Amino acid sequence: MPNLTHTPRLEDAACLTEAECLLIDPRARAEDLFDQCETRMEAVSNLMMTLSTLDAPGACADARDLAHVALSSRLLLADALDLLLAARQAAKGRPTPARKGGDHG
Questions:
Q1: Contact in structure between 36 and 76 (CB atoms under 8 Å)
Q2: Is the pTM of this model over 0.85?
Q3: Which helix (H) or strand (E) segment is 63 a member of?
C-alpha cells in the first residue's frame, strides 16, 4: 500500500494486477497515463483489425496464431484498464490504490 505521508515516490508505485504487473509511477501526470492507455487501446484495435482480415482470400492463421493475438490483446487491455484507473485517480489528485487480483473481465 502506498505511503501517503509524503510526496509520491517510485517505491510507492502500484502493481494493479496479480499475475501480470504493470508498474505505474505514482508521480506520473494524468495526461501521460491517459496517453499510455490510448496507445495500448490503439494497439489492441490494430490487432483486432488484423484478426478481422484473416478471412480474406489467401490469408491463413492457425490456432497458435489466434492464441497469440488473444493473449497480446488481453495483456494490452489489462494494462490499458490499469492505466485508465490510475489516470482517473491522478486527475482527481488522489494516489493510485494498489489492488490485488486480475479482475479485468
A1: no
A2: no
A3: helix 63-91
With vertex at residue 92, the alpha carbon angle to CA 87 and CA 97, rounded to the nearest 5 degrees, is 60
Q: How far apart are CA 34 and CA 86, in angstroms?
A: 9
* b/e sequence 26-59, b meaning 16+ C-beta within 10 Å: bebeeeebbebbeebbebbeebeeeeeeeeeeee
How far apart (Å, rounded) are the C-alpha atoms in residues 28 and 65? 35
Average pLDDT, the chain: 78
- 35: Cα separation from own chain's centroid: 11
Q: What is the spatial distance between Cα 16 and Cα 104, in angstroms, rounded to a whole number? A: 11
Which pLDDT value is given to residue 9? 60
Contact 94, 12 (CB under 8 A): no
**Sign of the alpha-carbon dihedral angle for 9, 15, 16, 20:** positive
